[in-house]
């Protein structure tokens, strides 16, 4: 790891005034679920408009292939070989959840010392123990939503947290899906945060739970997708209290989120702060809903795998950056970037240097069109350990390697084979050895996340 110094002293990248920063994170949304990436069934006009008026990153990667570690990477600028949280709550050696610690330095803490108002609305998922990991102890002035994973699985929760206080939602019944759908409350609180803080620099981390299982949305949202002749995918309620028709519900959930993002942009414009606000939209990992054996939405685009895989379908995420006064409209970049780059980017925007050692590289030069100033990663690294695990992966330039424990390394030329169908390890043994070295030398040991086969503790 290295400390990434700010380049704000360079006249080509300097930002005159500290911009507002909004990072919008969808939950389990696939790369191909958006119109600008080729989706032709689900309507996402507002996100597509951000893409048309902003910059699309075609080579952007999540922190992990499930939400907990992915979000930890986004917040701390450290990839899963170095981060505190490397797996979801129960997938630890002891069975005890691992949260962000007091020693972790988050994006919010960095921006707070630069004078930003900081808020998170939605799913945090990094404070299972409700202790040092809670957002108000990790640099956030304001929090509304879910500290823990399991409560975020339901859209009609009995309670959520507002700052460190548990707040009951009167009349909500998660089993029977009655009361107030949490997505709408999340959206209201996000709008309130902007209204309350727009007169000074602010950072809003807006973490929608859509379209994570369970699949449920108001009936009125589904109307646009009914009577289209779609085949019915019947969902069976269990832990997740799904609505019956999966395809219609999934599409309606994504479109509802899209509409609310459009409303949020409109609010920024009404307040007169849109020109000085960087809005980023992405997803925490690959999709889970679309059936890989019988794809309907083509959520993966051309990628292999989905959530819980380290193939492209699990970690290659949609990414749009919109900043009317700074980003040239309708641009695309193939710059290889990742969730751990957000922290140094935010720091550079705020005119400060990251205070901890990180793995990230600021992509601000790319956002501003200064490609010649853009520092590039030597390589990217991931590790993941659930039922299939442990699995490790690296990307170095056009090359991608995936390594399952006790199995030979797989390597792919992504420029020619984005679907990772043609393993070239046998025909290019020197490249396989080079990538295997990176896999074996890119992590620090973590007692709760050893790279050994394990089962989920109950």
In CATH's first tier, which class applies? Answer: Alpha Beta
Helix % is 10-25%
Low-confidence residue ranges: 2-13
- Supply the number of structural domains: 1
| Shape label | globular
CATH superfamily: Alkaline Phosphatase, subunit A
Largest sheet: 10 strands, mixed
The percent range for strand residues is: 15-25%
Rg calculated over all Cα atoms: 21 Å
Give the termini separation: 34 Å
The strands making up the biggest β-sheet line up spatially as 7-6-5-4-8-1-9-10-2-11
CATH architecture: 3-Layer(aba) Sandwich
User: What is CATH's topology name?
Assistant: Alkaline Phosphatase, subunit A
What class do helices, strands and sheet pairing give? alpha/beta
Average pLDDT number = 95
The multimeric state of the shown protein is single chain
Keywords: Hydrolase
Protein name: Arylsulfatase
Domain Sulfatase N-terminal: 19-352
Family: Belongs to the sulfatase family.
